[in-house]
Amino acid sequence: MNKLYQLLGLAMRAGKIISGEYLVLREVRSGKVHLVLLATDAAKNTEKKITDKCFTYKVPIIRYGTRQELGKAIGKVERVVIAVTDPGFARSIQKFVQ
Prior knowledge:
alpha+beta; CATH 3.30.1330.30; 4-stranded mixed beta sheet; 98 residues; 14% strand
């Protein structure tokens, strides 16, 4: 498992991760999200909703991994979208992707 997935798991254990399309959209609107990760195999409709909302609220979005990989990283079943609510974790994750 790579470092990004390890960071996601750590953030999940710290309670700084939100997953699921509805919950992520709600938290993006509330301004509590610092980074959104979207699975590369997300449906086009989901992709459009998430990217449009992140663009509107100026939240960085990263396309990374499959839904199985993202889910496994946070100890859940398949997850298409994950939001990071902690600025420190968000910065660390962005460093690994760049």
